[in-house]
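Posting here for the record, re: NAP.
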Amino acid sequence: MTLVIGATGLLGTEICRRLASAGKPFRAMVRSTSDPAKKETLRRLGGKLVEGDLKERASLGRACAGTAAVITTATAILSQQQGDTFDSVDLRGQMQLIDAAGAAKVGHFVFVSVSGNLLKHGDNPLLAAKQAVENHLQQSGLTYTILRPTRFMEIWLSPHLGFDFVNAKATIYGSGENKISYISLHNVADLAVESVSNPAAQNAVLELGGPHAFNQFEVVRIFEEVSGRTFEKQFVSEEALKSRKTAATNSVERTFADLTLAVARDDTIDMRDTFKKFSVRPRSVSEYAKTVLST
Ligand SMILES: NC(=O)c1ccc[n+]([C@@H]2O[C@H](COP(=O)([O-])OP(=O)(O)OC[C@H]3O[C@@H](n4cnc5c(N)ncnc54)[C@H](OP(=O)(O)O)[C@@H]3O)[C@@H](O)[C@H]2O)c1
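Prediction output follows.
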């Protein structure tokens, strides 16, 4: 039995889909406040729903009891629920989940962090929490896998974050010349599930990217080729991004501003070795472009 924390989220639901299609039994931790439609999706996939909250230690003990593996993707970055903060969820909540998994003698713990480049050069409460939780997990005595994905293409190449492929408009952050190994969240889900059974993932920290690194202009060109349209580019300078961060009035704003500023820095990940050791089929930016432009 695998326990998925963050199961109603974008990545967590994809992880549950893969567990279901592989015929692997799973328990999905949800909250009383979680979207009912998302809970229904998890039920239809065959998941056993268990109620819990990273802020409530007792609920984590109940959720972990009898599970062989825990995969956690949860984050408060977009959460609207009362009491959810980076400190209460991404930091203390994840740490107490690790403690609960240790007490329940869970066999394998998979934690979704962020790329090492971001951890090294970023400066915001989410990244501080990710680093502290990684350290806590490595010292816990649990068999672990830390997944460090770079930018999800489904998020960072979407209209929501300024990449408006529907209207052929793209926001270029900074010079646009730096390269990023955009990864599909579908591949992160594949790797999270395979981590539990693949010996190469035991007690490992895996940097995760897509099959190619592209700068922002190259990404625009891919979308132009696939759509046959010329994209209008809007530029946001690095200075403007730094000012946004300075002007932030709370930790979520500050984190978003810092993560956006980091789009103007390199985040390339050489995946050749990982792709040899795992059975994942890498999804490319052009495949993503074809999918989103055809719907
Ligand atoms: N986006 C990127 O480019 C990127 C890159 C690298 C790494 N990541 C990491 O990928 C992970 C998954 O992201 P995502 O897009 O799937 O996030 P998401 O869609 O925002 O999902 C967040 C999940 O966390 C749950 N959650 C929040 N607070 C909770 C609490 N107090 N107790 C229990 N569950 C709680 C939410 O449950 P409810 O539905 O109940 O609110 C939801 O299931 C995150 O850890 C993120 O840092 C993302």
